[in-house]
Amino acid sequence: MGSQLAARLAKLDLRGPRDLLLHLPLRYEDETRLTPIASARPGWPAQVEGEVVSCEVVLRPRRQLVARIADASGALVARWLNFYPSQKQQLAVGRRVRLFGEVRGGFFGDEMVHPRVRAVEAGEGLPEALTPVYPTTAGLGQATLRKLVARALRSERLDELLPGDWLAQLDLPGFAEALKALHCPSPDVSPADLESRQHPAWRRMKFEELLVQQLSLRRAYLARRARSAVPLPDTRALTAALLDVLPFAPTGAQRRAAAEIAADLAAPHPMQRLLQGDVGSGKTLVAALAMLQAAENGWQAAMMAPTEILAEQHHRKLAAWFEPLGLELAWLSGSRRKREREAELARLQRGEVLLAVGTHALLEDPVNLPRLALAVVDEQHRFGVRQRLALREKGAFGQRPHMLMMSATPIPRTLAMTHYADLDVSVLDELPPGRTPIRTRLVSDARRDEVVTRVRAACLGGRQAYWVCPLIEESEALQLQTAQETYDTLVAALPELRVGLVHGRLKSDEKSATMAAFAAGELDVLVATTVIEVGVDVPNASLMVIEHAERFGLAQLHQLRGRVGRGTVESVCILIYAQPLSQTGRERLKVIFEHTDGFEIARADLRIRGPGEFVGARQSGVPLLRYASLEDDGDLIDPARELAEHLLAHEPARADALMRRWLGAREGLLQA
Fold it and tell me: Which InterPro entries is this protein grouped with (predicted)?
């Protein structure tokens, strides 16, 4: 195989015959039968065979190759808008050809545009199987892929690696049988059955893929349990002191999650726990208690947040809790002055400061945390896989730190069982008392003036409002209301109110000053981009307006809505949308209008977006599941987990062989 072909295959992550076997078709074409030209139905793919009656290059309305093909039943026109000189030679008058394509009505009768064409002899036989169409990349043709897959099917051993009793119990075909059915399906199988991916051969491959994912994540979990970490016993010296001075009592869910984390931290192997809870459920307090448990044992803890605004919010809240206990809290972000930053780094390196909060600046090489025993990652799905791994490598004395990952995007059960199978999960499933339910309103952008009137009334009544826009500066392509434009409009429309603006392009100190002014009640309306999506807590803000809501994802809409409803007054979230709405946009707005429960919204989000985007898989460069669907194949997840446990305990060699077949050297990225 030449280096050029190998490079093109590598773009599809195909690096050997084993990968080609598992490169399964997207769809199929039926070239096993010929359709008389007169019987070909418009709008349907068909294969016809006939003689070339004429072939010429036509220059109007644009340069194109036009041939007329006839059989005993009739004739049709074949048209190519892009063609090579060799194609004209292939279509010499009098030659017999086969065309495969979709028939449609044309100006001069039925025609095929860009059909696949092949010269044949009279009476030449037809293929005996449906023709697979594979995912491909530029410069890699279907014919080449088919040839390579056929060669791999002939040369590779198709060993059966699943126990026979499990195959019988789940009514699944063997590996070799399933692969041949998918790569070379017989003509009596309906292409629609195969393309729906519910054919038994597809079920077999999806089960094996889920099984391998479970094996990989389960093995990562067991390997972590075998590693050593600094044990941090719960002495309650600082944690009890914080709970004593809090002006509120933690919820039952917070106490339960804190106890689970405290027990993990006391163990001599690294914790890897996901703390998930809806917007406003109190994850920061649980993380603070974990950080104090590290500090009371004389070890360091660091919290990493994805944006500067959120990191600063955490710093302010944690400092208010920690400083009365006599603890300092370092703050590291890319925008801090060099001298301040270096002084902070030096104190962390000497171990004088045990607790730190920061953005991804915490991952940079000069940051040395010699006694790091706990790393907390907030909004963990917003970080790439390699960033999460980088923080893990900063543990004290080469040991892995305990890891606590937090997410306000609740994770549906099927997702937790697959993509998060190597984590322990704590759930905050109750909100602190005193939270008021948020009413959601959908408003067309034609009624914007009514929304401005609503904002004026709320602010003159002593409340505050957010107005969120998706873009910073004008984009001709999207034509969205921008933050700057909206700010100018609201300043003009609401002269009696104080309006502020915050977005990602502002300098850090400008952003901080505006946010602090809004929190202190010195601003009535805050116009913002999604920088305020997480962590902002202003109890007096009771109105949230989201511009072009159809452009936001469900998780973002739910997060933004959670910025209000933090006080005792009833809060309202107004979603302004532009017509016409796409099907997905309509679906998303319906979900956010009907549900306030984060878990319900997460389930709908998983259905609409799919798991890859939901968990940030795109940041890893490795798709988490290529073929199995959490929505369609949820019934296969439990058996896959059970079999994974059985193989790791009793047949590790079989587990190794399965992992080599599917993952090769790519296993590490799944474990982050």
Answer: ATP-dep_DNA_helicase_RecG, DEAD/DEAH_box_helicase_dom, Helicase_ATP-bd, Helicase_C-like, NA-bd_OB-fold, P-loop_NTPase, RecG/Mfd, RecG_dom3_C
